[in-house]
Amino acid sequence: MGLFDFLKKKQGKVSKHVDYQLSSSPFRTGKVFAEKLEVDISNVDEFRKTFIAFDVETTGLNSSSDRIVEIGAVLFKEGVPIQSFGTLVNPKVRIAASASAINNITNEMLNSAPNEQEVYPQLVEFLGDALDGKITMCAHNASFDFGFLSNTFSRLGYDAKIKYVDTLSLSRKHIKGIVNHKQETVAEYFGLINDTAHRAESDADICGKIFWGVLDIIEESLEEQKKQIEKMSPDIKELEVCAFIQDIIEKKGCDTSWIRYRKNSNNYVDVTCLYTFLKFKFAKKGNYIIIRKDATNGIDLPIEPCTVSEGGTTNVRVYFRSPFDLTPLSNYIFRAYSDCYNSMNEYMSVSNYTKKEAEQSLSMLKSISKSAMKELLFDAKNRGYDETEVNLNIEKVISREDVIINGLHNRVSLNKIRNIGNWEKGFDAGYPYWERGETARKNGKVDEAIALFDKARYNGYDAPALYDSYAKAYRKIKDYDNEILILDEGIMRKTRHDVGTLEARRDKAIKLLFAKQEAERIAKEKSDFLKANKKEDAISEPSKRRGRQIIQMTDDGTIIKEFDTIASAVKEVGVNSKSIRDAANGVQKHAGGYCWKYKD
Q1: Which of 198, 409, 497, 590 is catalytic?
Q2: 174 flagged as catalytic
Q3: Is the pTM above the cut of 0.70?
Q4: Which end of the chain has fewer CB atoms surrounding its CB within 10 Å, N or C?
Q5: Residues with Cβ < 8 Å from 166, sequence gap 6 or more?
């Protein structure tokens, strides 16, 4: 429905006076919680269905000492105002002249208005589920309106859990190019006319229509986000694996409502409970799940080491064809989820803000309902899986003994490092050097980076990040010797940490150094071979003749002898070379009594 279609609709009106009154105790203070919500992809569709726009006029600005003198509330369904509540309230407190000048409500008008004990039971009845947080409310500068409503409910003994959105903050965020974001200015932006501005019911109606208009704007901006979420969703075969994992956890009696799934840019599927607790991938080589190396006992599935980005030597890849191949991992999956679930609860219990942040984060990811899980498992059981064995190209294991390490560096020995027994002091003194070194490394200034890392190390900074940065710098300039040496030190010093990433980096550096040294060895052997062959050829191959071949003949053209060079003819016949050349060139007929001509 369009923004202005509601103008043709007829509104229902709730009577300002009813024949009954909900009880509220004057001897107790009500417990009222008011929570501000932001509009995002997780709740925008819910807001579209139903909300209540709200507004109050008051005797002043202090929600504790001042009182509400007029209430307006309008129920919207799918953008259409279908029911409203509006009344003056006599709070037994005089309204200030300054307030009357704004809202045009006078003390005379309030004298004949119903009192709080009459009005608020009616308001409670009208708001209904909104007081349990099941229907969201909205107001312009909402903290003012709901501050007054919360204090009034509490003072009169009513309990409430109110969830609301603020059209003022929403308009500031999503509407640009207007002089200000007062309600009348935003209303004008949407082409709305308020004939009785600063009166609660009319203001509430306009506020609701503003909210609906802002939702239109927000939804346009969310389209790209929706596409991104769709892009992050696993495909149907991957979802069958997700369903199998979720079924394992559910059969253990766990709450699976917090489990979410996301396919990241590297095509790994993250299984999350706020934090990632499992990861698997459908790769060309085969489908594999990543688990800790120490959990592989008794698993009869193909296994290979993980890359650095997958956790290094701490983790392994376990290959599978069907989701049901993962049954032996049931206990591991359950423990991983339990640890993650506890971490999530710990984070969410910190504050309402962290809980809200976590819920919003989870709302952006794919979830699987129980019915969808059963359907996916049914499809998985009836799917024909490729029974071909996973063919792992197991590489030759290259160890330290296979390489010669000759790293030249300027690092001081460990016994000369400052603050080595005081981690905090070492961190404070060394961290700035590491930070500058990281900046230099990322800008391609590797030598400068290494020098700064040396200073960070010398001053006592020994976090795993330092050794990781060292390794990346040495890798960049292909100094595998120093990369191995510094990683050896990092692994030795960080035994209390998970050093799988450092170990994986070192193993890779050893392989690269081995390949480099093998290439150098082969190149040297080839060079030596070529030199030896050249020497042999020089010895065995006869000396190449120099000059032109020449023929010695009689006057009638009979060949007497052929010579490779004039020099050899001179040596044998005893005629000078000039005479022979002149005879061959026709300058003279004979040389030494013979005719001569060049063979070519």
Answers
A1: 198
A2: no
A3: no
A4: C
A5: 36, 138, 139, 140, 141, 142, 143
